[in-house]
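Quick one, T. Sequence first:
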Amino acid sequence: MNSTMSSTMDVTELEYLPKRWLILAHGFNMDGRAASQTITDKVPYLLAAGLELTVFSAVTGSADQRFTHRQFFPWGPAGLRFDFRHWLAMRCGRGFIYKVLTVSLSALLAPFIALERLIAGYSSQWSWALPAAWHGIQLARAGKIDLVYSTGGAWSAHLAAMWIKRYAGKNAQLKWLAEIHDPLVMRSNEQDDGLNAPSEREPHFRFQLEKQICLHADRVWWFTPGALSYAQKRNPNLLVPDARGKLKGLVVLPGANPPRTETAPLAWRASGQLHLAHFGSLSHTRSLQGLLNALPAFFSRHPEARTHLRIDIYGSDLDALSARAIQDHRLSDIVITHGRLEFDSASQQSGREKVNQLMREADVLLLLHGNSEWCAEYIPSKAYEYFWAQRPILALTHRNPTFNQLLVEHQAYIAEQSNPSAIIATLEQIYAAWQQQQMPVISAKPLGVDQAVQTILHAVGELN
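Structure tokens:
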């Protein structure tokens, strides 16, 4: 890892980087969580670059022993209840003690949560910004950090970073990097540029927070060109070069780290069934509904396929739309839910390691992009893990040319989420290849995390 870093970045550049970084990430070291993996996968490369890291996170992940890692409960009642449940489950499971304590705490906090919603009305994690900012300001004023790197996930990390930079006192040279995972401003349709502030409280707050980030962060990046483009329309200052001719906003494709060597060998073997495997969350905006609605027509053309096709769902319960489609089309024998994969004490595999193994055993990996307008600004982080599995991918996408091009480069099967005919035709291609036992091993080079860290370190180097 050190050799990779030194071979792509000049030693002099590394020498003059700000060395003492405070990373703010509500989710950190949370097994299987995309928001956590996006930052934790970068940590080995940041350490290899000689940086001194301090991490502030919530209590919902495991503590990291490689550097100073401080975990805080939110100061608001809704956030406290949410994080306490995860913290307790990690320590005693979800049995009797967990149920008694969580129910008791929920009853105790209920009136305070109602009051918080009445006064603030924000998502529960907002109040994690309070302890993160309080302790971060102390570090900044004591001159113990040179740079704040906020990442989310939960936007409370960016709120805390804004407060730290604003109240850093004499530490006027403190730099701020902001990494925006999902767009803070959610557009409603293709004609909506998001230029007008929403009237609802939380969307309005996120709209204003984005403006503050774009004004006061030294570098801010998004994960797709579409997200950056819409942010530039809302924040024209992103289009104004600094004294060195550099723009403040940029695109960083996050990538993913390869699986550990224990799970790396390809595990796929041909079997009597064609398994499509989906990993990750499902919701009303990212649902199996489009695929499931296409299956009756596909089966009418290929009746024998009904005995072969199976759709395995890992890591999520069915969303309401998927459940209804399964019921309407009588597909309960086709769609099999396996639940969330967590640490296995018998095999000593983490949830993420188990996921990586199962990905490599699947015939086809199912990737759902979604059907909302913000798909134009979003690439599922799961895609980068899928690329490492080197299995064929069936991707149902929506209005994102950058994502489609990335999928083409990785030899994926692609269909428009809202086009049943395209989905059926793509299923027929996959089924024909499976029947002929020609399911390929994908040879395209996966996108690693090292390239993302290189882009970030170069952007920081430009600040000096």
